[in-house]
Design goal:
Mean pLDDT: 84
Structural class: alpha+beta
Helix content: 40-55%
Number of helices: 5
Strand content: 15-25%
Number of strands: 6
Low-confidence stretches: none
Order of helices and strands: HHEHEEHEEEH
Oligomer: single chain
Length: 217
């Protein structure tokens, strides 16, 4: 279900007030049998104020950014960790996922490492297994993140069937050379450059933690 733009009423308010004022001035003029000088001056002032309000409303419609349309992701909220992980890694993954869910537009996330799903959190799809498709393979191969700003326009979206079916935007962020942090948002074009930098920093931190586990005898 699409959420309405929270600034829509504010942007339209000058248009509504200006139009209402102009209409009331016209009705008052038509119903007044004899116009006095003071009323004429008042009408002129009212027309100017109404015109300014209408012009302001038109400008606001064009220059004020609209918030991306957000949806309620389809799925059940959950938190799943691989059972065989060391407690230190579980704590690290829980901390990182909590930060992403509370400080970015992320609503669903998956940590995929060495061919295994280590974590799923947020709104979860029925399918838990990650089958790497062309986009995921490209990220792993080139070691560069990919941000799909509006998932529904990409033919490759079918490979993200382990995210809620109405996910609007996806970030695939490498975790070292062997894993991925896959984030799903509930609105298109909703991650900022600062969000992307934040995601990259957390992925780097997870890479250090997971590599240190693998290096232990």
């Amino acid at each position: 279900m699409t959420k309405s733009d929270p600034n829509r009423v504010l942007r339209r308010l000058p248009l509504v007030v200006g139009g209402l004022g102009a209409t009331l001035l016209l009705i008052n003029r038509l119903l007044t049998p004899e116009i006095t000088n003071s009323q004429a001056r008042g009408d002129v002032l009212g027309v100017i104020l109404s015109a300014v309000l209408i012009l302001t409303g038109l400008i606001w419609q064009q220059v004020q950014p609209r918030s991306p349309d957000a949806v309620e992701l389809i799925g059940e909220e959950g938190f799943e960790l691989a059972a065989d992980l060391p407690e230190a890694v579980k704590t690290e993954l829980a901390w990182a996922s909590h930060l992403l869910l509370t400080n970015t537009v992320t609503r669903s996330l998956v940590v995929y490492y060495q061919g295994k799903v280590l974590l799923r959190r947020g709104i979860l799809a029925p399918k838990a297994e990650v089958t790497p498709g062309p986009i995921v393979k490209m990220v792993l191969e080139k070691q560069k993140p990919i941000y799909l700003v509006a998932l529904n326009v990409y033919p490759g979206r079918i490979e993200f069937d382990y995210l809620p079916e109405n996910t609007q935007g996806v970030i695939c962020q490498p975790i070292g050379e062997q894993g991925l942090l896959i984030l799903g948002a509930n609105a298109p074009r909703s991650y900022t450059k600062q969000d992307e930098n934040w995601v990259a920093g957390i992925a780097d931190k997870l890479a250090v933690t997971l590599q240190s586990i693998n290096s232990k005898p």
